[in-house]
Amino acid sequence: MPAFTLSREQVRELDRRAIEGFGVPGIVLMENAGRGCAELLMQLNPERKPVVVLCGPGNNGGDGFVIARHLDNHGWPVEVQAVTKCGDPNKPGDADINFDILFTARISFTQSHPDHFTQHQAEIVAKRVGRDGWIVDALFGTGLTRALSNPYSVLVDIVNASGSPVLAIDLPSGLDCDTGEPLGPTIRATHTATFVAPKKGFLNPKSKEWTGEVHVIDIGAPRVLVEQYRPPS
User: Fold this and answer.
1) Against a cut of 0.85, is the pTM above it?
2) CA-to-CA distance for 160 and 68, rounded, in angstroms?
3) What pLDDT score does 233 carry?
């Protein structure tokens, strides 16, 4: 039976069709994704070691905000290091809404603007992820098509040098969704929580070096829609 995987374009299309064609709000998909990842991480981390969630711009970072909230709800020690610009307050996206919830819930976080990320801030992140705990990579997802540059390349180096176990969200930041090859600096994950189905690039045996063990998370996209992307047997 052919492997069921999703390409970058299929991921975008499936999300769009779930939202526009089936009426599933994007923020519901994000909530399901984040909650599923948090539940997985609680299974992987039964000792309740501290968790640092690294959040970047866009929906991958939004997933990270949801993960932090659900970990906090269950009493896991968690903090967020967000390296992202502020959204449009007049038209907040799903990630902005979940950041506001995180803020109002008083979950520990630090926010840095990517255009003004200093060496001092890098040292703070390195100190936080250097503790005996887990790191969640919620920097970039399947949409990335170019090599990461500063400050995100600096964050990749910090994570990879930390020696801590890493859970990557959807795929490790810096890995190409379709080829499974690094675009440049890339997170080396211990586990990857990917959504709906493994990504096309995971068929590349070399991707295992970056993804670690892959876990598929259901985000609530209707089955009748998902089945349209499954190859015939």
Assistant:
1) yes
2) 21
3) 75
d(Cα 107, Cα 2) in Å, to the nearest integer? 43
Torsions phi, psi for 51 (to 5 deg): -120, 130
Residue listed under structure tokens 């929580």: 193
104 CB burial (10 A radius; 0-12, 13-18, 19+): exposed
- Band (pLDDT 50/70/90 cuts) for residue 70 is very high
Q: Which residues pair with 86 in a beta bridge?
A: none
Q: Decide: helix, strand or coil at residue 95.
A: helix
Token code pair at residue 120? 């001092």
Residue 170: name the closest of 67, 72, 50, 37 by CA. 37
pLDDT at position 130 over 90: no
**Torsion (CA) 145, 147, 149, 151 in degrees, nearest 10:** 70
Share of the chain above pLDDT 70, in %: 97
Q: Domain 8-229: what homologous superfamily?
A: YjeF N-terminal domain (3.40.50.10260)
Question: 138 is written with which tokens?
Answer: 């919620």
Average pLDDT, the chain: 94
